[in-house]
Amino acid sequence: MQALSTEMRLQGKILSLVPTMGFLHEGHLSLMHRAKAASDILITSIFVNPTQFGPNEDFGAYPRNLERDSALCQSAGVDILFTPEASDLYGDGYQTYISLESLPNHLCGLSRPGHFRGVATVVAKLFHITQPHIAVFGQKDYQQVLIIRRMVQDLDMNVDIIAGPTIREPDGLAKSSRNAYLTDAQRPAARSLHQSLLMSQKMVDSGVVDVKLIVKAACLLIQSFDDTVIDYVSICHSETLEPLETIDGPALMALAVRVGKTRLIDNTILKPDLTE
Ligand code: AMP
After folding, report:
1. What is the rounded distance in angstroms from the CA atom of residue 163 to the CA atom of residue 11?
2. Residue positions annotated with a catalytic role
3. Cα–Cα distance measured from residue 84 to residue 74, given in angstroms and rounded to the nearest whole number
4. Predicted TM-score (pTM) of this structure
5. What is the pLDDT of residues 59-103, one digit of tens each?
6. What 8-state DSSP symbol labels residue 51?
7. 2: CA distance to ligand 1 center in Å?
8. Pocket test for ligand 1, best of 140, 173, 178, 263 (most atoms within 8 A of CB)
9. Which domains does the chain have, with CATH numbers?
């Protein structure tokens, strides 16, 4: 893969990369379309990265279907599908990792220790192997995008990071490979993440600026559904992820909720009306 990318770069081609863990859905495909439009060669990687899963997480159970994914990639115009094995990326004696100082100490990083170390490491490795000019990630994993942008800047990586919007099911649920775990009976509970984000923006529209009030209302809405356990509901600074007390400008609202055994995340930027 590295030799191929070097060759294509020498030919003057612009390369883009969309890294994924497979079990592709319209969210992934939208990133591919974005990448395709900005490059000559679209590379997509499918790699369920063991180093970003905790010991009690769903690495083994994570849904996989390479045949279906390959067909979807083909229809999305992917030029090269890169599907390494774990032993290709983490050989015997592997011991090098990338960890960031403070961005992982918030939101998902708190409940998934080591997760972003695994993410940053694998993304850096994929960048070195595929050598893209452009890489496209989803805003659905907001903290991940921030961390990757920070890593690219801090380590002088020559890759443009583009973030694509969250693609949703018709009922508002953010598309996710993990939605495959949900039963029909759990769908209303799963929908409550997006509903609580919409309700929070309505509260902000009506003049509520107290973060505690908004978070409390969102938690109540989510907890009104059976089978939900809130991991976090947070309103924080959109760049530093530091918690906020009052909304006086655009603020990130991010949440993670377990619906049964399925951990779901979602986020939005809450925007106060500052015209007065
Ligand atoms: P994953 O396969 O879940 O690791 O995701 C691969 C990429 O797709 C990441 O950049 C995600 O942020 C992005 N992605 C996942 N779900 C969505 C979605 N619903 N809309 C847009 N992008 C998404």
Report:
1. 27
2. 28
3. 18
4. 0.98
5. 999 999 999 999 999 999 999 999 999 999 999 999 999 999 999
6. G
7. 24
8. 140
9. 2-164 (3.40.50.620), 177-270 (3.30.1300.10)
